[in-house]
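User: Predict the structure for this protein chain, please.
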Amino acid sequence: MRVKAAKLTEKRQTIEWRSHEPSRLETFSDAVFAFAVTLIIVSLEVPKTFTELYETMKGTISFAACFAVIFNIWNDQNIFFRRYGLKDNWTVALNGMLLFVVLVYAYPLKFLFGLLFYDNTFTQNGHSQEMIHAADTPVLMTIYGAGFAAIGLLFFLMYRNAVKYAGELNLSPIEIFATNSYSYGNLITVITGLTSIALAWLLPLSLSGESGFVYMTLAISYSVWYRYRKRKMKRLFSD
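Assistant: Here is the predicted structure, written as structure tokens:
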């Protein structure tokens, strides 16, 4: 089934898929991503009171947001290995660092989305508690931005490494061009994360949390970049 799905996808991809079956490295990666999802799960116990049930249901939205982020990282990693199927030492090392970042940031990611959807409050023993003080907001945004930028940097390095193996992989000129597009596209992720960190410290303390709105520009940034590269690719490779 995976092979058939890969062949169908290849017809719509600029870069031919060179790997259809997961390697041991990818199987291990899948297990790590599954564990990361387990860390952010809403609750491992059945609620015993309505208050506990209410708190659990409140966590559903933040869990969905965390799951979407982790799933997107997994999907990007999966596509990379389907495209190139690399198993060299540098790819293994970069993939290991990527998995480490995903695991380390599972809880901060859950806390951040919980903060957004809980309105900075949670209930403990029937009492409302504050999740974070204003003075801690720049630190939180720094933690999140650093993780976000790190993931973008690791994908950038993985794609740059794939370009180095263009000969061994028999990448066509258009595939090399597309690989470079994806490679430098990940720098948008890095720049966005670093910009959010800078704003978190430069803005007044009461507005430091607003630095998170920088991430909303990603859709525009990605759209502009890939449209530009697509137009350039047509000019260079059109018959």
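The first helix runs from residue 2 to 10.
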